[in-house]
Amino acid sequence: MGNRLTQIATRTGDDGSTGLGDGSRVRKDHLRVHALGDVDELNSQLGVLLAEALPSDVRELLVVVQHELFNLGGELSMPGHELLATAAVAHLDEALAHYNTSLPRLKEFILPAGNRAAALAHVARTVARRAERAVVALGAAEPVRDTPRHYLNRLSDLLFVLARVLNRANLDGRSGDDVYWNSERLRRDAAADGAEPQ
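Structure tokens predicted for Cobalamin adenosyltransferase:
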């Protein structure tokens, strides 16, 4: 593993290259650097979400996810190394199953909206999808384990579910719900039931 940071402004990247964790250097537009950057952005976005009022169980889960994402980034920065445990994917599967049980079935697409915490979870979800796409692109060019890709796929699903959970958490004093896409089908169904669509 490369040396830990002792200074930030090294000027070694002025030539458009950056150092990886194994000491090698690549261009800053390398597929590996794109994947690393997207994972870093995702972790930063979770940091913003963690600045919100959250249910304690959701907070504890997201703190664990931040550490796992750091491991994922470390693995991407060192070609051939394994840092993200495969058990981390199973952990996300368990969280998905747990939080899904408390949610009503979706009858329509929902918008990435609601209270602030839920909206931030949706932003993190979209960044997770982009990070996943970057890891897929890297894997098409170089060997990459399946675990990072699986983890990001599962995490984006979990963040969608958590956004729904956070809209219902009532931490802002206003009990919320999903914000539904006002589709033609939803209007027809509401009209048939004699109700206004949400």
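The chain has six helices and two strands.
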